[in-house]
């Protein structure tokens, strides 16, 4: 038997505690029998680590959970039961808790699209598509289309990352090699030339200048990281996005990528309401 720590609602009041069960599915079943609607449940020994070091679910994990929701809904199971089953099957603790929270919100009367939007885990286009699903008959197909789209995004990301690994390693080692050379080798050569009363070549002076620039960037790197993390508090998002779009070449890539994403999401939103209406 394992001790599980849970948080949830009992007759509209928030409750928390622990329960013993062989596994997570059994714990959920016991809580349901007691009338408790859990919003999160995890092994008691892992509570601290779950709260402090919860890993954000990957695109594949989210897509797979959406596909599971589609499959179960297509087989006629009610939505709240589907969310409970999927939450017990996913490995990511954050995603599991979010699905249980959505289930609780739906049972309390909240709109499904609002519940998914407030989760801040699922993609932004999913609540819009759920809101556009006017009937329950095509609700499951929203999850299918969204899952397919996210699987494609994940495949594209994987290809991009795999294609960038080799050049990134080469560039990194090249920068390190140049830094080591200008930091430890070039100064000794300059000292020897100065002892002979000769002026260092222009290329040597340029490398020394490059070394100083790298040092400054290295010392400023913590500040740059902090500025990037808190950029939303220091500058409005609209101004930050305008700045990105104004960057040569990169701005065009960002613009065309977002236009392509917008067109694809709009196409999915418009098509899902008519996709299965025609025989």
UniProtKB/TrEMBL annotation:
Record's keyword terms, sorted: Cell membrane, Membrane, Transmembrane, Transmembrane helix
One term under GO cellular component: plasma membrane
Q: What is its main location?
A: membrane
TM ranges are: 164-186, 206-230, 242-259
Subcellular localization, as worded in the UniProt entry: Cell membrane
Q: How does it sit in the membrane?
A: Multi-pass membrane protein
The Type II secretion system protein GspF domain covers 67-187
To which protein family does this belong? Answer: Belongs to the GSP F family.
- Cross-referenced PANTHER family: GENERAL SECRETION PATHWAY PROTEIN (PTHR30012), TYPE II SECRETION SYSTEM PROTEIN F-RELATED (PTHR30012:SF0)
What name has this protein been given in UniProt?
A: Putative fimbrial assembly protein PilC2
């Amino acid at each position: 038997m394992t001790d599980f720590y849970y948080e949830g609602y009992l007759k509209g009041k928030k409750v928390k505690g622990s329960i013993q069960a062989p596994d997570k599915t059994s714990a959920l079943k016991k809580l349901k029998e007691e009338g408790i609607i859990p919003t999160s449940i995890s092994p008691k020994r892992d509570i601290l680590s779950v709260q402090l070091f919860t890993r954000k679910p990957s695109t594949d994990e989210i897509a797979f959970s959406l596909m599971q929701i589609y499959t179960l809904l297509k087989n006629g199971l009610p939505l709240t039961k589907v969310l409970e089953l999927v939450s017990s099957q996913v490995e990511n603790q954050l995603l599991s808790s979010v699905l249980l929270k959505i289930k609780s919100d739906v049972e309390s009367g909240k709109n499904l699209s609002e519940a998914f939007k407030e989760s801040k885990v699922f993609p932004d286009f999913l609540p819009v598509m759920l809101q556009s699903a006017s009937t329950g008959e095509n609700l499951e197909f929203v999850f299918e289309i969204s899952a397919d789209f996210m699987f494609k995004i994940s495949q594209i990301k994987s290809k991009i990352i795999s294609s960038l690994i080799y050049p990134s390693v080469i560039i990194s080692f090249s920068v390190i090699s140049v830094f080591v050379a200008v930091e430890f080798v070039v100064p000794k050569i300059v000292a020897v030339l100065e002892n002979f009363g000769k002026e260092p070549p222009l290329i040597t002076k340029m490398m020394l200048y490059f070394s100083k620039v790298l040092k400054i960037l290295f010392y400023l790197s913590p500040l740059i990281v902090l500025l990037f993390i808190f950029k939303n508090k220091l500058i409005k998002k609209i101004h930050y996005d305008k700045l990105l779009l104004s960057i040569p070449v990169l701005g065009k890539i960002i613009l065309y990528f977002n236009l392509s994403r917008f067109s694809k999401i709009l196409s999915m939103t418009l098509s899902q309401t008519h996709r299965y209406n025609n025989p």
